[in-house]
Predict the 3D structure of the following.
Amino acid sequence: MFDIGIGEILALGVIGLLVFGPDRLPRAAADAGKWIRQIRAMAISARKDLTDSAGIDMSETMDSVKELRDLHPRNIAASLFKDDEPEQKSPPPSKPAPTYDPDLT
């Protein structure tokens, strides 16, 4: 979701230790987790309220979006150039013969 790597997580941990200290850091992390859960719950309920008040059936909307994907030019071109014959499997490419390198010995 956020595309955060291990380096960024470690940097955030060190900054958290410097800002909050080792005694208050676990409590601050727990509070941050609670806030994130509350924000997610509010977003889900807001989405549900909007769809209920608008009278939109999301399954029909998703079906129409999938139908629109079929009209993408890349998909149309792929369907035009698609062969009706089944594809013949080609043999896997052979590995090149190993060469002798005197520097590696």
